[in-house]
Amino acid sequence: MYDFAYHKPATLADAVKLLAADPDAKAVSGGHTLIPALKLRLNKPSALVDLSGIAEMKGIRREGGALVIGALTRHAEVAESAEVKAAIPALAYLAAHIGDVQVRNRGTLGGSVSNNDPAADYPAAVLGLGATVHTSKRKIAADDFFLGMFTTALEPDEILVAISFPIPEKAGYAKMKNPASRYVMAGAFVSKGPMGVRVAINGAGPCVFRQSAMEAALAAQWSPEAVAGIKQDADGLNSDIHGSAEYRAHLVTVMAKRAVAAAG
Amino acid sequence: MNLVTPFEGIGASVKRKEDLRFLSGRGQYTDDINRPGQAYAFILRSPHAHARIAGIETAKAAAMPGVLAVYTSADLAGIGGLPCGWQIHNKDGTPMAEPKHPVLAEGKVRHVGDPVAVVIAETRARARDAAEAVLVDYEVLPAVASMAAAQAPGAPLVHEGVAGNLCYDWHIGDAAQVEAAFAKAAHRVVFETTNNRLVPNAMEPRCAVGDYDTATGEHTLYTTSQNPHVIRLLMGAFVLNIPEAKLRVVAPDVGGGFGSKIYHYAEEAIVTWAAAKLGRPVKWTADRSESFVSDAHGRDHVTRAELALDAEGRFLALKVSTQANMGAYLSTFAPCVPTYLYATLLAGVYTTPAIYAEVKAVFTNTVPVDAYRGAGRPEATFLLERLVDVAAKRCGFDRVELRRKNFISPDAFPYQTPVALQYDSGNYHATLDAALATADWAGFEARRAEAKARGRLRGIGISTYLEACGIAPSAVVGSLGARAGLYEVGTIRVHPTGSVTVLTGAHSHGQGHETTFAQLVADKLGVPIANVEVVHGDTAKVPFGMGTYGSRSLAVGGSAMDKAMDKIIAKGKKIAAHLMEASVEDIEFDRGTFRVAGTDKAKSLTEISLAAYVPHNYPIEELEPGLEETAFYDPKNFTYPGGCHIAEVEIEPETGRVHLVNFTAVDDVGRVINPMIVEGQVQGGVAQGVGQALLEGCVYDADGQLLSGSMLDYTMPRADDLAPVSVATHTTLCTHNPLGVKGCGEVGAIGSPPAVINAVVDALRDWGVEHIEMPATPQKIWSIIHGKSC
């Protein structure tokens, strides 16, 4: 990696100040995406602002009809949280199946969602549950947050602080992993609840997206069979040596079906 | 009595002596070695598959902080190219094309990853920083990334002097006899396949540390090698011109090799040369990305085969035409892999009386290809065992009975094949029957029906394989083009108080030699394995040996040790006879005790060794003091492990994902020294074979860029890709080495790929699928199911 300055602020306000003062600085929490990129010299930040010391970004709590999870919460904590398992078991399941043990013990909710890797797991839950992203500046609805490949509504000096997940009646997640990387090749997060019926597809396209035809079908009849016949358009989907756009489009339907079955 | 208790000799599953240090993080790998004043090398590599180098500007990099030197090929005047250790001859008797393999690119780069310049600096980071400031003016040339592209009319030439990018056009067998047999065949079965290119990916990346003693003029290279003496010979004699007496090569603990650490690589020569030039030790360590483009790859064949059968299914003749990818340069042993380690195996376990094979080796703008676990034998086995299944299906034979009908009979040994090899022993019926029983072959249809009820497609596949290892008789391989002998050396040093140090030319990089070899000593000399130390991997300690590859360590290296122990015993008997006032002929030796036959007079090995080193009462007129013996063992033949592998898979029809659900291996590896280690070796080999069959595929695009250049895209097998592997052995002894051993290191990787693919094809039998190329990825399977609805 290249040389960079390192800061570890204790408060959110200090972190925002550091990022605002230096457009080439980058925030880091678990580092499981950024550090490998630095090691490969694919990224050259002037400074890293380590968020891991900021207490107000931690913790899992229930607020009314929602679970609010701090951005610094690690995947393993979400996976093992009794609160999450009771309120949104599909979210705990998703967290328990991210990467491997090492990734889950380091990677954080905020890091994953801010990065918006098309093959990441969490964006599917955020969009599929109609969650609200709390930042250092504002609250952003999931539908307005994910803008494109590795692109979100976050501004350079804006930090994701927590995510509020409305507790659904039912939710389920299923994914097909890339055989090599084990990232998501096609996944579906489905839910039915206060935010209506939602189907979020990850891995298949350049950015997580909602599958409206499946949502309509599930709204009419909540069952795996309801989505089994709905074909995803392959146009615009990702394609690589492990999965063509056509294969991914096919997998979208299979995973949606499995997600609904898992949701019960 | 001095019998070892508990029994630690041949046949005991004793725990591995070396694992304490490996599992507790106290192994000493090359990158753990840091010499005083050490500097670091970074290799600048080509980003292009094929380009002319119009110029290299190094001044800016050389002036950067912490930089000691920047070298290009212009600085390496007088340094030779990396030598090739095997010369193949063409059909017309002329030698193969052998273009220079420069240490650093000379005027042209020929594959992505080709070394162009080296930066040496105080730290690795500084060296890498400076490498980014080296300006290379590349004139990009059209590349040939596949053998098809390389052989197209008017294709760009990888090497200007090598027409048609053809390294050699070789053949073996009797073409006329084969044609005659085909003329009267009832069935002719044509089969075409590609054996996928693999990236070895040893857990430990390659590393090299060069050191130079300015006072004595001695060079030392610490390197991740399977054969330090071979590196010393090749680098000293052909590249750097350093006399062997002034060059020490040390290969300490090595974290996996699988063949990829046999070869002499440019980085070894660079650090050795630069250390002397700068008067500073120099270390280079590959990162994983670098390993992908600089370690020799494996396999990469394209083959058309045709089998002739009579009406009853007897194999009459086989003809094979193979193209083998050499990559951009000839790696150390590359030419022998698709010839003498491949085509000579095409009889397999069958009595096919006539075989003809021709092999074209082709240069491409890709990383060099060389031996990788199994080396040629997996390619031959995959071809044969798929071909037999295809023949059974097309001609209407049962696939097991067709194999059985064509097996070499257990009483037919020694068996001479039509492709040069003479098998010494084996019992293919026995391994087949044992595997069929263990895998419950007969009960499969019920399991298939049960899986179908769960929505899964279940298939079963079999492979009855044979391989040739324990390489090799020096005179034979010499006549076939090897530029080295392939004996092995072993020294047994019995210390004054009876403990033993073994020096071996074999090298352990995961195989458990320190345990297996100690067991040989325990068994023969009666010394507890705790009192046996095995020393390997250092040319300053061990006599000239050839190293470890081709499952040779026990069959060749162990035999050398056994011969050395014979000498120890013979000398010990003379000492014992003197001490006990008996004649040498009357002395018997059994596991640590010398006895006068028919009496209760006895001396322990310890008493004898003490007498040998404190020769107060000693036959000094006839016998030298000391108790240390060395033997060089040159094998009389290859060894021929064989057996039967059965794989069972289930396919998710919706996704195309293949789940391996069961795997049975029954192998004849000759006498088994440590069953636990053999089981581990077979399981590891099967894991790599399953990797080749289902997961691993090295992919270049048409421009020669490596698309599978990291583990994000290259699928390494993981625990959840595998299934329980049932390992059993059925032994017929090797008849020509003193231990009766054959070798077990590669059988898993050789026998398993066709078993897995045969199972996948069987699972898709309702789709009429005849063949699926490796790796059988979910996408590939889905395309078949999707494309041909059943």
Which ranges of chain A are low-confidence, i.e. pLDDT below 50, for 5 or more consecutive residues?
Answer: none
Q: Which CATH C-level class of the domain at 170-263 in chain A is it? A: Alpha Beta
CATH fold assignment of the largest domain in chain B: Aldehyde Oxidoreductase, domain 3
Q: What sequence of helices (H) and strands (E) makes up the elements of chain A?
A: EHEHEEEHHHHHHEEHEEEEEEEHHH
Main beta sheet of chain B, described? 7 strands, mixed
Report the mean per-residue pLDDT of chain B as an integer.
Answer: 97
Distance between the termini of chain B: 71 Å
CATH homologous superfamily descriptor of the domain at 170-263 in chain A: CO dehydrogenase flavoprotein, C-terminal domain
Walk me through the topology.
The complex is a heterodimer of chains A (264) and B (790).
Chain A lengths: L4 E3 L4 H10 L3 E4 L5 H6 L7 E4 L9 E4 L2 E5 L4 H6 L1 H6 L1 H8 L4 H6 L2 H7 L6 H7 L3 E4 L3 E3 H4 E3 L2 E2 L7 E7 L3 E8 L6 E10 L2 E7 L6 E2 L1 H9 L3 H5 L16 H19 L1
Parallel strand pairs in A: 1-3, 2-3
Antiparallel strand pairs in A: 4-5, 5-10, 6-7, 6-10, 8-9, 11-12, 12-13, 13-14
Chain B lengths: L18 H5 L15 E7 L5 E7 L1 H4 L4 E6 L35 E2 L5 E7 L2 H8 L3 E6 L6 H5 L14 E8 L1 H9 L3 E9 L11 E7 L4 E6 L4 H12 L7 E4 L15 H13 L3 E4 L2 H7 L6 E9 L5 E13 L26 E10 L13 H19 L3 H8 L8 E2 L5 E2 L4 H11 L5 H10 L3 E10 L7 H6 L8 E7 L5 E5 L8 H13 L6 E4 L17 H28 L6 E4 L2 E4 L5 E3 H9 L14 E6 L8 E10 L6 E11 L6 H21 L29 E5 L17 H17 L14 H10 L3
